[in-house]
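Encode chain A's predicted structure.
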Amino acid sequence: MLLIRSSAFAAFVYATAAVSTVCASKTSLSLLGSASTSIPADCAHIIVTVNSQSENALTAQNTTASSLTQLFGVLTHLNATKVNTDGMSLSGVYNYSNTPSTLIGFNAQAVISFETKLGEAGRAIDSAIQNGADNLQSISFTAQDDNYAKALKSVKASAVQNAIDQAGLIATQLKLCVKAITSIVVDPQSNNYSPPVYAAFAETAKAGGQAVVTTPVQASGIQVSSTAQVNVELDKC
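Encoded structure for chain A:
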C-alpha cells in the first residue's frame, strides 16, 4: 500500500499560484502541485573493480582478463543480472621519487557492475572479492522496475490532484469556480535509487569448521516524487 504525501502549497494565494486578470470575468491561475511516497528497495546495484599490476603491459592485461573470466563465472552462478563492463584501462605505474619519474610497470583495470536481489547482496560482494575483484567501488539500491513504475504513476496523479485542489481552494477565496484546465505539465523528481545503509551486525555460518562472515547490507526505502504544473481558468460560478 502506497502512502502518498501531497504538499498543499497554499502559502496562501500568490506564492505558488500566479494569478492574472483578477478583475476581469475570467481569471487564470498557474499552480504547482507535488506528491511523494516511499517504496521498499529490493535490488542491489554493485560496482567492483579488477586490477592487475606487472612490469609488462601484456602480462598485466592478461592477468586482469583471467580474473574477469573467473568473476563472470561466479556472477552467472549467483544469477546476477545486468552484468556490464563499465570501463577498462591500461596505464603506466611510475616511481615519482626519482627525478624525472621513471616507469616501473603497468596497471590493468576493469570496472564491472551488476545487480542482485537485495537479500543476496552481501554474498554477491563476498563472492566477487573472493573471485577476482579487488575493490568494492559502490553499492546502491533500487526497486524492481514494475514496482517503481507503479509508484511513479501514482505520485504523478497525486501531484496533479494536489494542484487542482489548490485551484479549488483559491477559487473559493475569490468567490469563483474552476471552469477549465488549460494545461498540465508533469515532471518526475526522483530516481530509482537509494544510498546504502549498513547493518550493525553480521550473520555467520559454519563451513568446514571455519566461521564464514557474510557482509551485512541493509537498504532504506526508495523515494519517489513528482511535481505537476497545472494552469486553470476561473470564472463566475
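Residues 8-17, 196-209 have pLDDT under 50 and may be disordered.
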